[in-house]
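During the reporting period the student researcher (J.K.) took over the structure-prediction task from the postdoctoral fellow and processed the backlog of single-chain submissions. One of the processed entries is reproduced below for the supervisory committee.
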Amino acid sequence: MYCVDLNHGIYSKMSPYSVPSGFLALVVLMICIPNNFPDHSHESMERKTGLKLLSTKSLERVDFLGATLLLGTIILLVTGFEEAGTNRPWRSSVVISLLTISGLLGIAFFLWERKETKADGIREPIFPWNLVLSRIWMGTVLYVPNVI
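J.K. obtained the following structure tokens:
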């Protein structure tokens, strides 16, 4: 397998063992790590390995729409910033549309996560709205970028 360095056009060899070894590590982790791994205070919980976690009951808890909206937001935002200034001017229609759609997807993501948090359903939101309401958490998020 080869990896392309788009900045210099240089091909470099990639280890052919990296993908299979990563997949093997993922399978071993799914089989070996119990469901209550970080929280051992519930001793009565049944030990659920990764194979049991892939059941339909467990997959109902996953917020697939929230994950898709977040992924789309990040991909379009990064692509817009990568294209701007290097391949295209900042005022080009491609850059503006990428950043605009990214912003709309970001707004849709936050609205969806707020709806999922308020619904008290079976699905677990990726970004619980309680974090926005926590002054300590928001203060940390808003303060840290100013320090860097």
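The committee noted the following: The two ends are 38 Å apart (CA to CA).
J.K. will present the remaining backlog at the next meeting.
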